[in-house]
From TrEMBL, chain A:
Cofactor(s) listed in the protein's UniProt record: FAD
Name of this chain's protein: Electron transfer flavoprotein alpha subunit
Assigned keywords, A-Z: Electron transport, FAD, Flavoprotein, Transport
Molecular function, one GO term: flavin adenine dinucleotide binding
Biological classification of the source: Bacteria, Bacillati, Actinomycetota, Actinomycetes, Propionibacteriales
Cofactor stoichiometry and binding remark: Binds 1 FAD per dimer.
Source organism: Microlunatus antarcticus
From TrEMBL, chain B:
Record-annotated Electron transfer flavoprotein alpha/beta-subunit N-terminal domain positions: 22-212
Entry annotated with the keyword RNA-binding: no
Quaternary structure and partners: Heterodimer of an alpha and a beta subunit.
Family statement: Belongs to the ETF beta-subunit/FixA family.
Alphabetical UniProt keywords: Electron transport, Transport
InterPro entries: ETF_a/b_N, ETF_b, ETF_beta_N, Rossmann-like_a/b/a_fold
Protein name (database record): Electron transfer flavoprotein subunit beta
Cofactor(s) demanded: FAD
Species per Swiss-Prot/TrEMBL record: Microlunatus antarcticus
RNA-binding found in the keyword field: no
GO molecular function, one term: electron transfer activity
Length: 317, 260
């Protein structure tokens, strides 16, 4: 079996859902080996082992937090040289893709970004042109680098696993990798909701909210989902840019996407069109978003969402 | 200071975009234009030129004949001159090859700063600026919502999922800017007329010292083996909300899909 190297990302010291998805895909192609660019607890290693990981490598270096992207990519190159994988998998986040791009340059490896599926031979499926086309691409050199969008598969644990010891790995970083100095970092206040890319449900509000996101947030909370926003809502100052869904915001592919008061411009669709199911609520029956909605409701979003949340609460009571 | 702005000519996203028989993008079938997000890169370069003495801005594109339209648009916006890397052998080049060609062209042009868009609107990989920086061995300050350049270094502010980062790089460097960086200007009538007289150089692979065998479809690291239009999502059910019927339909949908 070929080795598949997976760059794991952690959230609060545990493997992210996106990482467990990568492992599920990696097992189709070969034996997954995980590299983590931070400290790995025994509990975290156990979660990785339960998802079929045969080795856990941990690399720690202060440069990962002090400089942008390049040190992570350089470290990963050294791990690839040591492990000799046929394929490297990373998550399609802004950072994951940049690490992958630099890695591909260093290795002379093929690069496919934003895959949504992976075959046993490493052929990646991706959705392009704002979801209008599906392409399949294969790497043509020794190693392939593929980034996978979160929410592409359901993470599956393996049966019968045994604990894996964490192997610390030392790397030597060049001065060139320390080119982009991070001089300030203002952490975003947590919303208490799941992250946009990882959430299985996203409820987004647009200009049609008129600035009142109360019902949008209430439905997101009732479904355990994340809140998103259109650029019009962001530009109006109603929601921070970090919550923008679309071409220049975050790309999401949740199980369910609810668009409330969003017209469905191509730039918005580019960021949500791969959602598994779409519900749209809009007062204008001609809104383009209805063309891709599994369920469309022509009506006032405040009234409709309010009644939906009330209905969900009544069901739970 | 010399600023090179990388711009891509892409099929219009509001029209039907299609693939050709060789599984590359059909660039004949759809009108092309300067990738919308590269207008922000042009804008930032022009602002730097207006704010500083002795700043030269050059626009650079790699693409077929039609790609001159992207250069023309940037010249109309106010950029001083253009470079078009044009060579039949480039057809079907993947991102590894494109970054090689751009790196060679930037080196030949000579630059203190390269400004890119955050992502093209066709390939939309969002990785080229980082790869270009890696090839040039320069620092990369990417996804800038704000860009300042002074005294031989650039400072950017970048927002990611978890934090707002301030990043500093010494020049030469590669920067990519987002659509948060500032609205791009429209060409003025004066700009449109002036653009006609601005110089555009055309370079082929030979001019860049590159071997045609290393680029193009045949040499691509990544091979596209299939491309299909997505089956029409088939607009689902649409209901008018009357006396709470809208909420009822949503609740049924949520229950049927086990979302709630
Ligand atoms: C370079 C570039 C990048 C962009 N990137 C993005 C991006 O990443 N994400 C993004 O979203 N956009 C992006 N856009 C903007 C995009 O083109 C649209 O302008 C934007 O998506 C519109 O947002 P909206 O649907 O909320 O507003 P509108 O288009 O104004 O639509 C509001 C909708 O709300 C409905 N409505 C009004 N009142 C109610 C009510 N009470 N109840 C129900 N419905 C109601 C209206 O019928 C209308 O359909 C980008 C644009 C450019 C040029
Ligand atoms: C639908 C589609 C999917 C693709 N998927 C892949 C893939 O998975 N793997 C792969 O190897 N290739 C892929 N390609 C090819 C790839 O898009 C091109 O090689 C391309 O020029 C670089 O990638 P990008 O356009 O996505 O750039 P991005 O990284 O999205 O572009 C960022 C910036 O780089 C600059 N830039 C990009 N291209 C040029 C150019 N030609 N000239 C000047 N400046 C430029 C611009 O400033 C742009 O804003 C794909 C192409 C298409 C059309």
């Amino acid at each position: 079996m070929p080795t598949v190297l997976v760059l794991a990302t952690f959230a609060d010291a545990v493997p992210s859902r996106a990482t467990l998805e990568l492992l599920t895909l990696a097992r189709r192609v070969g034996d997954p080996v995980v590299v983590v660019l931070e400290e790995v607890s025994e509990a975290a290693a156990a979660v990785l082992a339960a998802h079929g990981v045969t080795r856990v490598l941990s690399v720690q270096d202060p440069a990962f937090d002090a400089y942008l992207v390049a040190p992570k990519s350089e470290a990963l190159t050294q791990v690839v040289d040591a492990v000799g994988p046929a394929l490297v998998l990373l998550t399609s986040s802004v950072e994951g893709k940049e690490v992958a791009g630099r890695l591909a340059v260093r290795l002379g490896a093929s690069l496919v970004t934003d895959a949504v599926d992976l075959d046993a031979d490493g052929t990646a499926t991706k959705s392009v042109f704002a979801g209008g086309w599906t392409t399949r691409a294969r790497g043509g050199r020794d190693v392939g680098v593929v980034t996978v969008k979160p929410n592409s598969v359901t993470p599956e644990p393996v049966e019968g696993w045994s604990p894996v010891a964490v192997e610390p790995v030392a790397v030597t970083l060049s001065d060139a990798a320390r080119g982009a100095r991070i001089t300030a970092r203002d952490p975003r206040a947590g919303s208490g909701r799941p992250g946009l890319t990882e959430a299985t449900v996203v409820v987004s509000g647009g200009r049609g909210t008129g600035g009142d996101f109360a019902e949008v947030e209430a439905l997101a909370d009732a479904l355990g989902g994340a809140v998103g926003a259109s650029r019009a809502a962001v530009d109006a100052g109603w929601y921070p840019h970090a919550y923008q869904v679309g071409q220049t915001g975050t790309t999401v592919s949740p199980q369910l996407y609810v668009a409330a008061g969003i017209s469905g411009a191509i730039q918005h669709r580019a960021g949500m069109q791969t959602s598994k199911a779409v519900v749209a609520i809009n007062s204008d029956g001609e809104a383009p978003i209805f063309a891709l909605a599994d369920l469309g409701v022509v009506g006032d979003l405040h009234e409709v969402l309010d009644a939906v949340v009330a209905g969900l609460k009544a069901d739970q009571a | 200071m010399k600023i090179v702005v990388c711009v891509k000519h892409v099929p219009d996203a509001s029209a039907d975009r299609v693939f050709a028989d060789d599984l590359t993008v059909d660039r004949e079938g759809t009108d092309g234009l300067l990738s919308e997000l590269d207008e922000y890169a042009v804008e930032q370069a022009l602002r730097l030129a207006e704010a500083g003495d002795d700043v030269e801005v050059v626009v650079l594109t790699v693409g077929p004949d039609d790609a001159t339209a992207a250069i023309k648009r940037a010249l109309q916006m106010g950029v001083g001159s253009g470079v078009h890397v044009l060579d039949d052998a480039l057809h079907g080049t993947d991102v590894l090859g494109t970054s090689t060609v751009l790196a060679a062209a930037v080196t030949k042009a000579g630059a203190d700063l390269v400004v890119c868009g955050m992502s093209s609107t066709d390939g939309a990989m969002g990785v080229l600026p980082a790869m270009l920086a890696e090839r040039l061995g320069w620092p990369g300050a990417t996804y800038a919502g704000r860009l300042e350049v002074a005294d031989g270094h650039a400072t950017i502010v970048r927002e990611d999922d978890t934090a707002r980062l301030t990043v500093e790089v010494d020049l030469p460097a590669v920067v990519s800017v987002t659509d948060q960086s500032g609205e791009a200007r429209y060409p003025s009538m004066k700009g449109i007329l002036a653009a006609k007289k601005k110089p555009v150089q055309t370079w082929d692979l030979d001019d860049l010292g590159l071997d045609p065998a290393d680029v193009g479809l045949g040499a691509a690291w990544a091979h596209v083996v299939g491309a299909e239009p997505r089956p029409d999502r088939g607009a689902g059910q649409v209901v008018e909300d009357r006396d709470g019927s809208g909420a009822g339909a949503v609740l049924e949908f949520l229950a049927a899909g086990r979302y709630a």
